[in-house]
Design a protein that fits this description.
Elements: E1 5-10, H1 13-20, H2 30-41, E2 45-50, H3 57-66, H4 81-91
Parallel strand pairs: 1-2
Helix pairs in contact: 3-4
């Protein structure tokens, strides 16, 4: 896809930490983690960071919907109905509160 700069955001702090670790040989998913790292090595700039689940709503909804689609790349001219509300809220700058237990 000729991508040289990439920002990877995940609501899984564990996944972010594993991708950022130097060695993951003893992890049960080490093969997958190594494959991800190999994809990132050829890029000019890569940032991998944790985001809260609320900020990942659209990606999560699209991933779940993608499990029911045929394999391949799917492009949308407009946001699909499942994420349209969230995209509009984000575009308008709407803020969502987050409850945190201490």
């Amino acid at each position: 896809m000729r991508i040289s700069k990439l920002v990877v955001e995940s609501d899984s702090n564990c996944a972010v930490e594993l991708i950022q670790k130097i060695s993951v040989e003893k992890h049960s998913q080490s093969t997958l983690i190594r494959a991800i790292k190999e994809l990132l090595v050829g890029l000019e700039s890569v940032v991998v960071r944790h985001i809260y689940r609320e900020a990942n709503f659209c990606a999560d909804a699209l991933a779940k919907a993608g499990q029911e689609q045929e394999d391949g790349v799917h492009c949308f001219k407009l946001p699909p109905a499942m994420v349209a509300h969230q995209v509009l809220a984000d575009r308008s700058g709407m803020k969502f509160s987050r409850s945190v237990t201490l």
